[in-house]
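note to self — DONT lose this again. spent like an hour looking for the file last time. sequence + predicted structure for the chain T wanted, 166 res
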Amino acid sequence: MKTQLLGCYRGFKTATSSLQSPLLLLVRVYWGWQFFQTGWGKLHHISGVTDYFTQLGLPLPHVTAIFIAWLEIVGGCLLILGLASRLIAFPLFIDMLVAYIVGDRDALLAFFSDPGKFYAAAPYTFLFAALLILIFGPGLFALDTLIAKYWKDCDIQLRTENSSTA
């Protein structure tokens, strides 16, 4: 009985683990596109974003608005491609954390007292998607993975060449 349970668990674990990379691909592509769209919207309505950032009391509101718009555009594209995924996920995570702190502080402070308010806030899913990619990486279906494989293959070839000439 114990052996059967362990076998079932291993099978279940293998099946669910095989879904990790497709899930990360979906998260990257969907939320990368969302980041791109929000950045594009900010860039095309920069005066409104600058006014909003001014109301929030952010330093250099116009420069900050342009920076955030481009961060979200470029970051969204990089997430979609799975290129520099963890590197770009970090500033996107910080972007959304700041959005909570300065733009949705009530929702952030409601984390324990009213979690529904926290989850319903606009930055939540963006923050969560960036955090997911930051921690777990882009998955197998990403340019990062192809580049890592290429560099590993180059390293193996270089080591083989060096050991045969020694």
